[in-house]
Amino acid sequence: MQPIASSELRTASASLFSNLVLVWTATAVYLTHPYFLRFYSDDARFLLLGLAVVYSVLSPAFFLSYLQSGAPSHGLNVFRGLRRILQARKLTWLPEERLSTLLTGVRAFFIPLMANAVIGHAHQIGYRMSLLNQDASTDRSLDTYYVVLAMMFMLDTLVFLLGYMVESPRLSNHVRSVDSSASGWLATLSCYSPFSGVTMLIIPWAPTYEVFIESGDFRNVIMVVVVILTALTLGAVAALGLKASNLTHRGVVTNGPYSVVRHPIYTLKLMTWTMIALPTLTVVSASGIAAWALLYLARAITEERHLSKDPAYIAYQEKVKYRFIPGLI
Predict the structure, then answer these.
(1) CA–CA separation, 166 and 248 (whole Å)
(2) Fewer Cβ within 10 Å of end Cβ, the chain: N or C?
(3) Contact (Cβ atoms closer than 8 angstroms) between residue 239 and residue 253
(4) Number of domains in the chain
(5) Vertex 73 angle, CA 7 and 107, to 5°
(6) Domain that holds residue 327
(7) Of the candidates 159, 189, 165, which has an alpha carbon nearest to the alpha carbon of residue 299?
(8) % the chain with pLDDT above 70
(9) Which among 265, 216, 218, 222 has a CA at the least distance from the CA of 240?
(10) What are the two backbone dihedrals, phi and then psi, of residue 256, each rounded to the nearest 5 degrees?
(11) Distance (Å, whole) CA 217 – CA 312
(12) What stretch of H or E contains 178?
């Protein structure tokens, strides 16, 4: 066994320390900033605290992985980039420093968002289940519908939460690149809170999974179709696995629904919202769905522009010709 060089020990130690500083700085913001105190549940903030604690407890394992790889962590790259910028007094950094900084921004935004969503869906399940179990439900079929949807949404957001948190070449989900374009970030963030609040001021209709028509066979059909479409969406998310994340390239996914179209999740979401709006369709809701479709088209275009820097994705585009609907678009 070869002795470990002091430079390797310093790099591994600095990598772990840098990551811990970023994790606990972000956690402190999540626990104390007025935005998170107002819009995030106590359970969600407790989960974020728990994730930071788990990361700290596992830090010896991370140290060994940094020591084995010999490469600096994303956290160390971030601080090296900041030092370089401060010393040069201009925005100049190495490619790996730029990637790590952008990735840190992606994680800092989406990890708390997904954690809050997971907890929110869990609360919804608990609330609706209590109504059903205590015979307090005024509409059992509707409450059952919401329970089933919440279960799938919780699994959906949990997969994305793990995707943002876990990265390893051994899992084939390490980050190859991060979209650095303003249009890519704008198209993506406009679909997520708090930025979606501005989007909904522009688009006169908000996506929803609520059913507004009275009980009956027609409503039951609508609910069954929505559940099926949502299950298919969850299947597409499962196909992504630990590669699930926005604005990052973590390897090309070609299995499952991605062997049919390149953006199955977007297609299924838009189909679901259309199905829900159809019974009470108005000019406003129809124009709103069209506007959301254009927004998701913008997301698809910016994502493909980013991913097409990889020859593997170009080959995938040649194999899977259509973005949304086979034979059409």
Answers:
(1) 13
(2) N
(3) yes
(4) 1
(5) 165
(6) 180-329
(7) 189
(8) 98
(9) 265
(10) 60, -140
(11) 47
(12) strand 177-178
pLDDT exceeds 50 at position 188: yes
Asked if residue 317 belongs to a domain, the reply is yes
**Residue 120 within any structural domain of the chain:** no
Q: Give helix 6-32 / helix 95-133 axis angle, nearest 10°.
A: 40
pLDDT at 11: 95
3-state secondary structure (DSSP) of residue 177: strand
Provide long-range contacts, Cβ within 8 A and 24+ apart, for 301-307: 302/179, 302/181, 302/183, 302/184, 302/187, 302/188, 303/179, 303/184, 303/263, 304/262, 305/181, 305/184, 306/177, 306/179, 306/181, 306/184, 306/247, 306/249, 307/249, 307/252
Average pLDDT over every residue of 71-92 = 93
Q: Residue 217 burial by CB count (10 A; 0-12/13-18/19+): exposed, middle or buried?
A: exposed
The percent of residues above 90 in pLDDT, for the chain, comes to 88
DSSP-assigned letters across all residues of 287-314: HHHHHHHHHHHHHHHHHHHHHTTSHHHH
Q: According to the model, what pLDDT value does residue 1 have?
A: 47
**Does the N-terminal peptide bond of residue 194 adopt cis geometry, omega within 30 degrees of 0?**
yes
Does residue 210 lie within any of the structural domains? Answer: yes
Give me the pLDDT at residue 204, please.
84
CA atoms of 222 and 219, how far apart (whole Å): 5
Q: What is the pLDDT of residues 148-173, one digit of tens each?
A: 999 999 999 999 999 999 998 888 99
Cα Dmax for the chain? 74
C-alpha distance across the termini of the chain, in Å: 57
Looking at the whole model, is its pTM more than 0.90?
yes
Q: What are phi and psi of 178, to 5 degrees?
A: -130, 135
285 located within any domain = yes
DSSP letters spanning 204-263: S--------SPSSHHHHHHHHHHHHHHHHHHHHHHHHGGG--SSEE-----SGGGGT-S-
Name the CA dihedral angle for 235, 225, 110, 43, rounded to a multiple of 10 degrees.
Answer: -110
Q: How many Å separate Cα 218 from the centre of its chain? A: 33
Measured from the Cβ of residue 68, the count of other Cβ atoms closer than 10 Å reads 10
